[in-house]
Amino acid sequence: MAAKSPASVGRRFPEGFYWGVGTSSYQIEGAWNKDGKGMSIWDTFAHGPGNIKNDDNGDVANDHYHRYKEDVALMKSIGAKAYRFSIAWPRIFPEGTGQPNQKGLDFYIRLVDELLGAGIEPFATLYHWDLPQTLQDKYGGWRSKQTAKVFADYAGYMAAQLGDRVKHYFTINEFRSFVEAGYQVIDVDVGGGKKVRLGGAPGLTISDSELKQVRHHAVLGHGLAVQAIRAHSPAGTKVGFAENISVAVPVIDAPAYVKAAEMVTRERNAGFMTVMLEGRYTEAYLAEAGGGTPKFTEEELKTIASPLDFVGINVYKPRWYVEPSDEPPGYREIPLNASHPKMQSSWHVLDPEVMYWAPRHMQKIWGARSIFITENGCGASDVVAKDGRVYDSDRVMFLRACLGQLQRATSEGVPVDGYFLWSAQDNFEWIDGFGKRFGLIYVDFDTLARIPKLSAQWFREASRQNAVV
Length: 469
Ligand code: PNW
Description:
Blueprint: E1 18-22, H1 25-28, H2 41-47, H3 64-77, E2 82-86, H4 89-92, H5 102-117, E3 121-127, H6 133-139, H7 145-162, E4 168-173, H8 175-183, E5 186-191, E6 194-198, H9 208-232, E7 238-243, E8 248-250, H10 255-268, H11 270-278, H12 283-287, H13 298-304, E9 311-314, E10 320-324, E11 331-334, H14 354-366, E12 371-375, H15 393-411, E13 416-422, E14 441-443, E15 450-452, H16 454-465
Parallel strand pairs: 1-2, 1-13, 2-3, 3-4, 4-7, 7-9, 8-10, 9-12, 12-13
Antiparallel strand pairs: 5-6, 10-11, 14-15
Helix pairs in contact: 3-5, 7-9, 8-9, 9-11, 9-13, 14-15, 15-16
Bound molecules: 4-nitrophenyl beta-D-glucopyranoside.
C-alpha cells in the first residue's frame, strides 16, 4: 500500500490539511450522572417517554467516558489527525454557573492528554446542545439573555483550564438545529413537497417572534464566548463557530446562477451566519411577515460579529436549487423533485456538490480566509457480516463523492484547512436514537464492542495520501 494510487495524482489536498473525525458529548459519553455531573436538557428530554425512537437515551451511549483510551487508539488506527469533540457543560458546571466540578474537568484533561499522546490535534466544541437543566428551569434556556452571559463565563473558564493543551475552539454547534428544532419543530423539505419533522430538547413550541429572540441570544452567546475565550487563553488560540449552513446550489454553473445562489445563501442564513459575519440583520429578515423583530442593540451586534480565526460549517445536503430571476428579489428557488436521491436519514437529500458550493460561498459571500468542514457524513443500515466485517459501500461512495468536490474547491483556492467526518463512531442520533448509524466505527450497543467499517479503511488511506482515493 506504500505506492500512491494513480487516482490520487492531482487529487491531493493542501499540505497540512487536517483529516479529522467528530463526536459530541451527549451522543457518546454516557455516564450521565457520574462524578458530579448535573442534568442536561437532553437527559431530561430523552427520559421523557415517546420523545426518542424506541425510547433510547444517552445514559450509557458508547460509554466513551470510561472507554476513551480505547476510542483514541481506534481513531489513531483509522488515520485521524484531528478530533472534534464537545464538552458537556453540566459536567463542568452542574448547575450551569457557580462552583466548577473538578472531576468533570479532569475527564477532559485526561481525554486531551490521551489525544496529544496519540498525535491527534484536539478541537473542542463548547456547546453541542446539552444545556444544564438548571438554566432551562431558571431562565427558560436560550429564551433569556442570561443564558448567553453564563455560557461565556463557562467558555472563558474552559479556555483558561485547557489553554495549554487545546488550541482550537468551536463555540456553538448548529445554531439552526437546536434553536429551530428545540423551540419549535423543523420541517425539512425532502422533495415532491414532502416534509419531514425534526424536534429536540427542550421540546418547546414558542411563537415566531420569540424564536427570533432565541436566535439572537444564541448568536450573542457565541460572540460573548469568543471574547471570553480570547481573554482567558494564551496567544495563538483560535476560535470560530460550527454552523449548519443552508446551502443554495446553482442549477447551472454560470455566473448569473452562481450569483443567485450566493444571494439566497446569504439571505437564508440571516438569523445565524450572516449576522455573525456581518454584524447586522438583513432587511428582509427584519421585515419578514409575521416573524416580529428581535430586540437588540448596536453594541450586541458588534459583539455577535467579534472577529473569528476560522469558520466551521456542517455540510450534509443541498437546501435549494436556484436560478436567477428578473423579478425581485432577483432569484427563484427551485423545488426539489420527488425522486431526488437521498441517503438513509429522512432529511438527507443527496448532492455531493454542496461540498464544493458551501465553502466557496463562504469565501465569496463573506471573504472567509480559513474554513473547516466541521461535519459531513451519512447514516447507513450497517450490519456485521458473517465474516465479522461491516461493508458500508454507500458511505464509501458518499465520502469519495463529497471529498472529490471538496478537493475541487481547494484546488481552486478556496481556503479549507480541514475536514471532520461525522462521526468517529456510531452513536446516539438524537430523536432517531441508536437506529441511525453515522460512524466510521461500528458499535454493538449490547456489548459496546467497536468494529472499524469498510469506510474507515477508505478514510485511513485518504488521510495517509492526503488525497481523494
Ligand atoms: C448534525 N438536517 O445534525 C449534528 O450536529 C450531529 O449531532 C448529528 O448527529 C449529525 O448532524 C447527523 O444528524 C443535523 O436536517 C441535523 O439537514 C439535521 C440536519 C443536519 C444535521
